[in-house]
Amino acid sequence: MSVERSIAIFSPGLLGGSLVKTIQQRMPGVGVRVWARRSEAVEEVLRVLPGVLASTDVSTVIQGASLAVLCMPIQFMGEISRQIAACELAEDLIITDVGSVKSSVVDELEGLFLPTRAAFLGSHPMAGSQHTGLIHSRGDLFHQAACILTPTSHTKPEHLARLRSFWAKLGCRIQEMTPRQHDHCVARISHLPHSMAVLTTLAALSQDTRVLDSSAGGFRDTTRVASGDPGMWAGILMQNRTEVMAALQDASTVLTELLEMLQTMDEEALRRFLAQAKALRDLLPAV
Questions:
Q1: Pairing between strand 119-120 and 122-125?
Q2: What is the per-residue pLDDT for 97?
Q3: 20 to 30 Å CA-CA from 30: which of 10, 63, 66, 154?
Q4: Distance between CA atoms of 159 and 186, rounded to whole angstroms?
């Protein structure tokens, strides 16, 4: 039996909608409420996610909730959090999020909720898709996904335990690190790969899209995430720009090495270069 009695989801996109479906499957008996910015989105929620309460009114959705999850792009989390903080909140309310950047989000939102009855604790389930919107939500999106929690000195142990339990019930593998450790790590294993997929797409196709007629699985796999929402990713890269720039600088150094090997026709160095990449890639755990 879950300790959560009512969960409020703020913004019903891919992640928010998938959260609702997974909660309904794995946490029966827990009430779910969904906030959407527009009345049209509320109508879609009621069509796609039967059994939930949906509203454009923040106070209606947060009323009585023991857990709230912010699922909008990170640049909009501050605005909605200020509206939540102005409402009557349950004494045991925990607010968390699914954002891909933590330092700036935790710094702002933890301070915002400290004077209230609620508490903020950052989460980042490493789950998603190049597709966006509620229509693409699914109940297995979080199965075996890593979920990084970012407690601080203000985090109460019982809040951390509750949030660990929540994400574990949804099928996630739980990790903990500081917000800054998170941003360094995710810059390397998420933000850099997305940036490189964008660069590869632009370098390969901006001069002549006809080459796509000959493309195969390798190009599709390498560039898949470049189809992600540009507005969302612009926010992520800007919010984590220091760590992303450091990762891109390292990528630039490695690219320069590859160019030099090809320019000097150093096949032995090239083989070592490719073998090192293979060995490192082979360390990736199977899920």
A1: unpaired
A2: 97
A3: 154
A4: 24
Helix axes 241-264, 179-186, angle to 10 degrees: 30
For residues 191 and 236, is the Cβ–Cβ distance under 8 A?
yes
**Is the distance from CB of 55 to CB of 82 less than 8 angstroms?**
no
Amino acid at 214: S
- Is the backbone of residue 7 left (phi > 0), alpha (psi -120 to 50) or beta? beta
For the beta sheet containing 94-97, the strands, ordered from the edge strand earlier in sequence to the opposite edge, are 53-55, 31-35, 6-10, 67-70, 94-97, 119-120
45-81 per-position pLDDT tens digit: 999 898 899 999 999 999 999 999 999 999 999 999 9
Count Cα atoms within 13 angstroms, Cβ side, for 177: 16
| Phi-psi domain of 99 (left: phi exceeds 0; alpha: psi -120 through 50; beta: other) | beta
pLDDT of residue 2: 59
CB 125 within 8 A of CB 142: yes
Quote the pLDDT of residue 116. Answer: 95
Question: How many Å apart are CA 276 and CA 282, to the nearest integer?
Answer: 10
Where would I find the H helices in 54-132? 58-62, 77-85, 103-113
Q: Report the alpha-carbon distance of residue 158 to residue 151 in Å, rounded.
A: 12
- For the chain, give the longest Cα–Cα distance: 69
Answer yes or no: are the C-beta atoms of 237 and 244 closer than 8 Å.
yes
Who contacts 155 (Cβ-Cβ below 8 Å, separation ≥6)? 119, 121
Report whether 104 contacts 78 (CB < 8 A).
no
Residue 159's pLDDT is 97
136-156: per-residue pLDDT in tens? Answer: 899 999 999 999 999 999 999
E strand or H helix that includes residue 197: helix 192-205
Q: What is the pLDDT of residue 167?
A: 97
Instruction: Flag residues of the chain having pLDDT under 70.
Output: 1-2, 287
